[in-house]
Specification:
Length: about 160
């Protein structure tokens, strides 16, 4: 399944290549240290989901994200997704975008025996210069819904 996820990511890169040609802004690369999460369902869930992630945005509305983190079940997860951010508002130097991440994630032994499964997450993004934050809602069939906060640093 890892080969399928990697093939999906490569296909996404080629599919969105025309977006790069149309973009008026340079490609941006963002790094993140994982997530902080809050679960709405009672349980002993990990709230500090440390890891490493990268986001490459070919245009303000289109990018790919990938990374790894310790998930809420204290297991190692990996993810790869297309991040589409069509809704945009600008408040001076604060750039706010909303959209969806569509991709694959693994590492939850209580879902698909820990193997890869599809995800669709709504994400609200705020960026100020080289600093950013993502706020997302992550529904999970076993762990219930969680809200996740991801801090980001633009390195390119």
């Amino acid at each position: 399944m890892l080969r399928a996820a990697f093939s999906c990511l490569i296909a996404c890169l080629f599919a969105w290549r025309p977006c790069v040609a149309l973009a008026k802004e340079p490609v941006q690369v963002w790094l993140d240290p994982g997530f902080f999460s809050y679960h709405f369902k009672e349980g002993n869930y990990r709230q500090d989901n440390y890891g490493i992630g990268v986001g490459v945005f070919f245009a303000p509305e289109h990018g790919v994200i990938a990374g790894t983190f310790l998930n809420s079940d204290d297991e190692r997860s990996r993810y790869a997704a297309y991040h589409w951010r069509p809704w945009h508002r600008n408040y001076g130097k604060l750039d706010v975008r909303a959209g969806l991440a569509l991709g694959l994630i693994d590492g939850y032994s209580n879902t698909n025996d820990g193997d890869w499964f599809p995800i669709i997450l709504p994400i609200l993004t705020a960026e100020y210069g080289h600093f950013g934050v993502n706020l997302s809602i992550a529904p999970h069939p076993e762990n219930g819904t969680a809200i996740a906060l991801q801090l980001r640093l633009r390195v390119w």
